[in-house]
Every structure is written in C-alpha cells, then in structure tokens.
Design goal:
Radius of gyration: 16 Å
Number of strands: 13
CATH topology: Glutamine Phosphoribosylpyrophosphate, subunit 1, domain 1
Number of domains: 1
Strand content: 25-35%
Length: 194
C-alpha cells in the first residue's frame, strides 16, 4: 500500500511518497528505507509488490542516462533502453513475468521515474507514459493524491519553489483517505539541468 505523487514542472520534476507499510494481516508500520530511491541519475518511486521494490533498490543497474537528453530523444531512450533493462532485472530476480504466447509480460509494480527533470510513469505491463496534465500518481492512495494535486494546482503549472509543499499537502490528503498510506512523507526535486 503506497502513495507516490509527482509533478512535472517547466524545467524540473518533483516526486514524493509516504512511508507506511501494511501487510496481509493488516499490520501497519513505518519503512526504514524510502519508497523513492536514487539509482544512478534517476529518481525511482515504486508502488506494488515489495519484492519488486527491493529489486529496484538493491539490484537494478539502469542504463547510463545521457545528461543532455531531453524531449522525444529522452522518451525514445526510456522506451528502448531503460524499460527493457528494468524488465530484464525484475524477471532475473523473480519479480516479473516474461511474455507468454497469450499473455503479455508483467510486473507487480508501477513506477514513477524522474530522468533529466522529466517524469515517466511505467505501468505493470511496462508501458511508458507522460501526461499532459503534468501530475502523476501511483499506489493505493494515488487517486486521492492526484485529486488533491489537481485541486491545489487548479490546472496551472507549478513553480519549483511550491512543488514540495504541494506534494506534502497532497500526500497528507492521501493518508487521510487511504488506510494503506501514512506519514512521514519524503519529497525530492530533480532539475533538467545536468
């Protein structure tokens, strides 16, 4: 159970998460490790299966991110280099299912990736998305957080100076309505400049 939110700014991205864990017996605790990790030049927030999060945190070696890559070239890089490396790593460590004749490859995780100041959402089927509303959310409390972000921003682009505060307010809303999310919250900013 998780809430991870991200904001796409003009020349930055901001990402934040809760730190609560909940198990199948409804026990609740606070995680020692963050749900958002720096892996190379990437910030990666992981929602879903704990094993997948462990693999991303401790075993994933993503391709080196060229520092000046932006726009369509960055999207192509993420689709053709990052996602295949991520998929291969999950499958190698038992956290992803390879493609079979009638079923697509799949993981038990969704991730938000900040790369060169750009947010990418990578779903359980390894599809990669960016969104024109510039707001992102994954996890069990994601829909509450996304609604809060939308209400707080009123559809306007967020300046970097306000991003962390908006993430914290929206994560607080998520934690109020999603029993699987809770404080303390963690936020990070990544700029597009190398």
């Amino acid at each position: 159970m998780t809430t991870i939110l991200a904001i796409q700014g003009e020349d930055y991205c901001a990402i934040g998460s809760d730190s609560q864990w909940t198990d199948d017996y409804n026990r609740v605790g606070r995680m020692n490790q963050p749900k958002i990790v720096a892996v190379g030049k990437y910030l990666i927030g992981v929602a879903g299966d704990t094993r997948g999060a462990n693999v991303v945190q401790h075993a994933f070696n993503p391709p080196v991110l060229p520092p000046k890559l932006v726009g369509a070239k960055l999207v192509k890089f993420m689709v053709s280099h990052f996602v295949p490396a991520y998929k291969e790593c999950l499958e190698a460590h038992g956290a992803g299912r390879p493609q079979y004749d009638d079923q697509p490859a799949q993981s038990a995780n969704e991730i938000l990736v900040c790369a060169n100041g750009t947010v990418f959402q990578i779903d359980e089927d390894y599809g990669t998305e960016t969104d024109t509303c510039n707001l992102y959310a994954i996890g069990s409390g994601g829909h509450f957080g996304l609604g809060a972000l939308q209400a707080y921003t009123n559809g306007k682009r967020v300046v970097q100076a306000n991003a962390k505060q908006l993430l914290l307010k929206s994560l607080t809303v998520s934690a109020k309505f999603d029993s699987g999310s809770g404080a303390p919250f963690h936020t990070f900013i990544q700029t597009a400049k190398p």
